Amino acid sequence: MPASSPARRLDGIPPTIFAEMSALALRTGSVNLGQAFPDEDGPPGVIAAAVAALEGGHNQYAPSIGDPALRRAVADHQLRRYGIALDPDTQVAITTGATEGIAAALLGLVDPGDEVVVLEPYYDSYPAMLQMAGGVRRPVTLRSPDFRIDLDELRAAVTPRTRFVLLNSPHNPTGTVLTRTELEAMAELAIEHDLTVITDEVYEHLVYDGREHISIATLPGMAERTLTLSSVGKSYSLTGWKVGWATGPAALVAAVQSAKQWLTFTSGAPLQPAVAKALTTHSEYPHALAKELQEKRDLLCAGLRAAGLQTSTPQGTYFAMSDITDLGWDDGLAFCRALPQLAGVVAIPAQVFYDDPHGPGRHLVRWAFCKKREVIAEAMSRLLVADLRA
Ligand code: PMP
Ligand code: GLN
């Protein structure tokens, strides 16, 4: 009999919410504040470098571990930005976006039955890839309205079977930027229990109000046990390029590379020299982008509050979270599915990023502000005039 259903390793993994909500936005002509992609492209000089690479013969496989110029540029970035010295030949691997970095890290490092402490709500590829790797997730919930880590809950999540912490800061979808104190607690726990930290820092440059993103690998004793993932998408408004990187101890990077070679072998050859250029000659771009995004965040948060939605002010990322309880709704998924009809706007129900759909995320909705000011303003005026009550 031909197979008629997905393999058991995919049991219970739903289709990604981003596909459903972007299709809904297209179908209904709604303003899409759901799936996060900017509506303005990154630096023209970087795009020109990709065109030059396409026309200049960079059209065959790049080395599996990545274009040497890009690996050097990533190592330089980590040194310049965080003071972390890396050997570009053994401590940097280029991935097809951070998404492949996450997949290759989990497939390359996690054994079946290993427990992985992970912040909830989580980016949706984490539970999917953890399940495919056979890992067991141990969520630590960031609770509204301030979405901080409860350090007692964090300590309680660690058991004798825990081997990894999967961290994300700045955090999607809450916008939390972990503080030095929170990261130090995490580091203390990792050292005490001999855990490896996998940290997803794709929003590393997108922090607001003068805050600093601290990379956990910079804390004492952490460089040797931390695998750091990032990518070009968010920092340079090039989300469609899907070029990312994994950095850290050679043994951890080698594990990523061992899995990555069988996933994609290599990533888009002409884009890699262009990303190297972004990291070297356009290193100021992410800072200017963050300044612009902070203003857009304020525009969005003010609009959401004016429309009657309690909204937390995010410290970083592309996202703000609202609580829909005051409007009489008790289910974010139902709210988001109705929103195009009610107001012509699309958002993401945060409950899909929690283990329990009836739990602490049920009333939370995520809005993306990586859009032109006029687009955010249009969405906010639609929300303001609509009757959003249940
Ligand atoms: N991690 C987080 C937290 C994200 O929000 C995203 C979304 N882009 C990714 C990873 C995936 O990054 P990329 O597009 O580089 O694969
Ligand atoms: N990272 C994007 C978000 O959180 C989505 C990327 C994707 O569609 N997988 O909206």
Your description of this structure?
The protein has 390 residues and is of the alpha/beta class. The protein has 2 domains: 8-42 and 285-385, Aspartate Aminotransferase, domain 1 (Alpha-Beta Complex), CATH 3.90.1150; 44-281, Type I PLP-dependent aspartate aminotransferase-like (Major domain) (Aspartate Aminotransferase, domain 2), CATH 3.40.640. Helix content is 40%, strand content 15%. The protein is built from 13 helices and 13 strands. It has helices at residues 17-28, 44-55, 68-82, 97-109, 125-133, 151-157, 180-192, 232-235, 250-263, 271-281, 285-306, 332-343, 373-385; strands at residues 31-32, 92-95, 115-120, 136-141, 162-168, 196-200, 226-231, 244-247, 310-312, 319-323, 345-346, 348-349, 364-368. The strands form 3 sheets. It has a 7-stranded mixed β-sheet, with helices on both faces. It has a 4-stranded antiparallel β-sheet with strand order 9-10-13-12. A two-stranded parallel ribbon has the order 1-11. α5 (125-133) links the parallel β3 (115-120) and β4 (136-141). The protein is globular, with a radius of gyration of 21 Å. The relative contact order is 0.17. Bound molecules: 4'-deoxy-4'-aminopyridoxal-5'-phosphate and glutamine.
Question: What are the key terms here?
Answer:
single chain, 390 residues, alpha/beta, Aspartate Aminotransferase, domain 1, Aspartate Aminotransferase, domain 2, 2 domains, 7-stranded mixed β-sheet, 4-stranded antiparallel β-sheet, 13 helices, 13 strands, 40% helix, 15% strand, globular, binds 4'-deoxy-4'-aminopyridoxal-5'-phosphate, binds glutamine
